[in-house]
Write a structure and sequence with these properties.
By secondary structure, the chain is an alpha+beta fold. The protein has one domain (about 10-89). It contains three helices and four strands; from the N terminus they run E-E-E-E-H-H-H.
């Protein structure tokens, strides 16, 4: 590893998603005011508003709203191409 690449306070750190309580450990140089004990080891704690366990995109709870009719516009624009592909099968 190159010398002086990472900040001096680069260490293992716990991140907690405040919306669902999910906690994970990774390396970071973020500033933390609190600590948490996990499996007998004390880690600095950084609180997150949202993570991959609560974000609608990653959980599959995201609703696709097509207010501009984009899907219909796409289908109309490429109708001939789509029809050709279906007839080849």
């Amino acid at each position: 590893m190159k010398k002086d690449t990472h900040p001096k306070n680069y260490r293992l750190m716990a991140f907690r998603d405040m919306s669902n309580g999910h906690t994970f450990i990774t390396r970071s140089a973020a500033n933390a005011k609190e600590t948490v004990e996990i499996d007998g080891v004390e880690y600095p704690l950084y609180k997150l508003e949202i993570s991959n366990t609560s974000h609608p995109f990653y959980t599959g709870k995201m609703k696709l709203v097509d207010t501009a009719g984009r899907v219909d516009k796409f289908r109309n624009r490429y109708k001939d191409h789509l029809d050709k592909r279906q007839t080849k099968k």
